[in-house]
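Review form for a predicted model. The reviewer records the input and the model, then writes brief findings.
Reviewer: anonymous (R2)
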Amino acid sequence: MLTSTWLLIVGGLTLAAALIWSWGVRRILFDTPMIPQVPPQHDLSPVLLMSATEISRLLRAGELTSYQVVSAYVRHIRNVNPYVNAIVFDRCEIALEEAKEADKILARILKGDKSVKDPGWLLGIPCTVKESMQVTGCPNTSGHPHRSHIVSQVDSPVVKRIRDKGAIVLGVTNTSELCMW
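Model under review:
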């Protein structure tokens, strides 16, 4: 009984020491504040508050362009991401080009061009994908620093399906280490 109590006390002290040490090392080596900074206030585009189905409806009605939607999201990413580190690799420039292509397809669909294959309701809708999923040209680390050299050469089946339906991938988002928690 005494041995197990002693181990529990030593284990607790070791954990406490490790937490204090890691806090101190992080503070000294990386000089990162422990309390996250708040991003500066900026005007939110109304598009950022719309659902994907609402954006799709407006795109199909010609009231909105995919370039406008993707541009609003890119502006928001550039304003907020430095503070929250949600997107670990962005492909914003490529996404803006893909939005222009989606707008060309949408314009032809709106004109009634029957030679254009309609990919689906996701046409021109921006999205992000977790870093654990493969996106061509993006890192695929699954949150593990030792996999930082791995860059996807192909899309995962899920990403391929949403891109085939016209979705525009803005980037890959942060995930816990090896997707464990």
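Findings: The beta strands are 87-90, 126-130, 168-173.
Further findings: Confidence is low (pLDDT under 50) at residues 4-23.
Recommendation: see findings above.
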